[in-house]
Give the backbone structure.
Amino acid sequence: MKIGIIGAGPIGTTLARRLAATGHEVTIANSRGPKTINDTALGTGARAVEADAVIDGVDVVIVSVPFNRVPDVAALVRAAPDTAVVIDTSNYVPVRDGHIEAVDAGQAESLWVSERYGRPVIKAWNAITSTSFDHHATDAGSPDRLAIPVAGDDQDGKRLAMTLVEETGFDAFDSGPLSESWRQQPGTPAYCTDRTAAELPAALGRADASRSARRRDLAIAVLTERAEVEGTPSAEYLLNLTRAIY
């Protein structure tokens, strides 16, 4: 399968490495050019390309950019083949992204993203920290294998995305239509709390739309304060914090 990844941050880098290792033809691009892409992303065969080449003939486009960059890459995503499945890994963080009225009013983040792209979107790989994604992949059937929720309205596209999630080393869990993807957004019990497939349904079910934004902002405030005092919080600290708050 031919997969194009837009964005070479921690999640995009791990995706490129894992998906290329399973035999897919993977290209990855960022806004600064192929020479700036970390060699880690290319270690199993992925190729760094210019942005306008990353969508050429692809079966899947994975967009892994900060939420505030979605409008910047929208034209590129719209130019992908009509048959390509588009997967969104982004999360809305107002302190970084600025306030977006529709999302602040309750629109699911990936519905807003889908509107910008003018095409269906599958939401996946957003609800796991880059550290857990990079370090906690396991083989199918492994005890305590972590799960990643996958939401979307295109059933064929969602099945394909779930297959890719499994190939990256995690159980894929169908979390419903895109309108319900708010249940895996920041501030919810399923977000960055390292749940198994057995635990994930309850975590998604406990999500409270009236509280999630406040919990998201509280977690960011605590992390920012700790970083100012003690430096970048550890992955263990982040996991403990999200589980405690959410």
User: Anything to note?
Assistant: The mean pLDDT is 96.
